[in-house]
Amino acid sequence: MWEVLLDAAIDGAKIFPFIFLIYILMEIIEHARNKENIERILSGPFAPVAAGVLGAVPECGFAVMCSKLYDKGLIRIGTLIAAFLSISDEGVIILLTDGAKVSDVVLITVIKIVYAVIAGVIINALLSKNDFAHVCPEKDDCIECGKHNERGVDKYFLHPLKHAVIILVYVIIINFALGTAIYFIGEDNIKELMDNSTVLQPVIAPLIGLIPNCGSSIILAEAYLSGVLGFSGLIAGLAANAGIGALILLRSKNTFKKAFLIIGLLYVLGVALGYAVMAFSAVIG
């Protein structure tokens, strides 16, 4: 159990710099002179492209950053979905370091980026015009709590640090709870569930990927490396994996209800990608 607590603390430490950075960024946005220009960039047609490409970087902190931006209305849902679909958390690192073919990892990354960008652009296009992200131009209060700070050190360091620590504690507690559940269920039992359902792997693997814990992507990667999980199941699971980002959505009262819609959408898109890859593989091979 100490290992579970240690893993939760390590995962929290990994994302803390990103959390701190995003709170500083939000302060900068709130005090920027050209907020309308920032709004157009964050809500623009190329936002899902940037999110899809940057999400491919194997680091779970980006999911947290995007979740906070969405929570505060700074990016649109399609942009958030693009980031989530592209993210593979620590799964890519495990694949690269434990013997997977580099060509397979590159293929997974490219497919996920392209799929993420297309899905993000389509989702944003289908939304109503009133759903555009909005950077409030008439006040300079903290986006998170509404407080106003005059001093630069408070505004751009102490205040963001306070919010980042609160999120860190929350992430560690939830990660410990999820890690404990995985510990008692057993990673081998989870892998066996996928192994016994070859045709249904694109349905089951995304359920594993949806677990908001860094361990879920590791389980998927290890299952693939051991031959338990096929390529279509792996890419479906990693597409649905948003890492700790989903926790941020579930924590906020602004996005709690929408979080279930986003998670459900991620699952459906993950399953669809898995079966599309499976069908394509059957045709060519």
Q: What does this entry look like structurally?
A:
The protein has 14 helices and no strands. The chain has one domain. It is mostly helical and 285 residues long. The radius of gyration is 19 Å and the shape is globular. 74% of the residues lie in helices and 0% in strands.
SSE layout and pairings?
Elements: H1 2-30, H2 35-43, H3 47-55, H4 61-71, H5 77-86, H6 91-97, H7 102-126, H8 152-185, H9 187-195, H10 201-209, H11 214-225, H12 231-240, H13 245-251, H14 256-284
Helix pairs in contact: 1-4, 1-8, 3-5, 3-7, 4-5, 4-13, 5-7, 5-14, 6-11, 9-10, 10-12, 10-14, 11-12, 12-14, 13-14
Helix content: over 70%
* Order of SSEs: HHHHHHHHHHHHHH
Could you name the ranges where pLDDT drops below 50 across 5 or more consecutive residues? Answer: none
Radius of gyration: 19 Å
Please report the total strand number as a whole number: 0
Number of domains: 1
Largest sheet: none
Entry keywords:
285 residues; mainly alpha; globular
